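Here is this case:
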Amino acid sequence: MRKLGFIVCLFYFSITGFAQISRHESKPLSPLEQTLITNTNAVPEAQKSRNVDFLKRTLTDDFVSVGSEGKLHDKEEMLTSAHDGELKDFYTYNLRVVPVNDETAIVTYDCIIHMPEGDAPGLAPRYQHISDFWVKQDERWRLRFQQATAARPID
């Protein structure tokens, strides 16, 4: 009977501990995190839906991207890619917002994408780690820099 009581207590405390860990991991997002995560997801959505006007407003004039192939791309290339509908599909996960100061923040995330790019076989890496650098201009968050790094599915 004592063993059964011990097992029940151990089970109860284990569940309580897991519940506390779960609550801690799912803390509510701050307004800054909500805004930047929404904006971060809106950029590839605009690329996918060919919404060039949104990208013109959201990317800074001096926007630069380092593609997963290691080459630099400017705002015009990003707009052309969106106009041509190169991004077919995407899924972001593991988003994390790192505030730098009141006017800048970095958003890092993992992404699964489907789009043509580069040489044969003509596809961009499906799994990528992406870092976005957001700046606040005229009370509006705008994307200034992005770096995509190819990731292996096991990373």
In short: Residues 29-150 form a domain with the Nuclear Transport Factor 2; Chain: A, fold (CATH 3.10.450.50). Residues 2-25 form the longest helix (24 residues). Residues 4-24, 118-122 have pLDDT under 50 and may be disordered.
